[in-house]
């Protein structure tokens, strides 16, 4: 495996949420497993982005030949954690044709008529695709829990239900890469201030973000419960410190490369007679 030596331990090993993980101990400005600096990280993002791109093309090619396997990247994090930037700067390396991207906001009237997994199931990647969720079904045990949008007995049953749902997905050939992105309270303030200072960022600002910020401890508790209850063997969480964007981006690039390499893909064989086609082409 072509793991750059600047990683002293692979991202998939270092960042995996193991039982007993304590979120309040996480240094959100840290760069776990990585020994390089920002310049190293930025260079590496380009190098490894190219590797990711090649692997994604292999996945797509296999999908076109009937392989039903897929990858689903789940990005979950508070406002300003960098979910959108992750899509632009990491997923931006691969051919958009093979990407199925979905963002989940406040449920629409139509979505509210259905089970919370309804909109999720509609957005799942088909065979050969790299699915990307900007927020996900985990909102239904995060914002919903923090704001008591449904009674406790309803949201508390969802952890098991989500584990079961993901197990079925994995058994059907989807590798789920769940990334919990954590920014510090201070860094979030800086990023929100920037959104208020820059006309090109006003569109990202939502007055509600400051309300959610006021509920920080309740959110941290909800995130801790999510990690405790849904970091499973079949679909573990990876905890990524996000105060340094360059770090979070190389970390997620490595997680995706690792997931794709584990599929052990090869180029699909020709489904035509190569020699006959060469002869036909020569005569044409
Ligand atoms: P953004 O990602 O900035 O576009 O914001 C989307 C907003 O939708 C966030 O405040 C989420 O917490 C909220 N949201 C996403 N899913 C749900 C849900 N199932 N119930 C309530 N709010 C949600
Ligand atoms: Mg937002």
UniProtKB/TrEMBL annotation:
Residue span(s) of domain Polyphosphate kinase-2-related: 38-262
PANTHER family on file: POLYPHOSPHATE:AMP PHOSPHOTRANSFERASE (PTHR34383:SF3), POLYPHOSPHATE:AMP PHOSPHOTRANSFERASE-RELATED (PTHR34383)
Gene Ontology MF, one: polyphosphate kinase activity
Signal peptide: none
Keyword flag Kinase: yes
Record-linked InterPro entries: P-loop_NTPase (IPR027417), Polyphosphate_phosphotransfera (IPR016898), PPK2-rel_1 (IPR022300), PPK2-related (IPR022488)
Keyword Transferase listed: yes
Any one Pfam family match given in the protein's UniProt record, by short name: PPK2
An annotated GO BP: polyphosphate metabolic process
Naturally occurring in which organism (per UniProt): Rhodococcus erythropolis (strain PR4 / NBRC 100887)
Keywords: Kinase, Transferase
Name of the protein in its database record: Polyphosphate kinase-2-related domain-containing protein
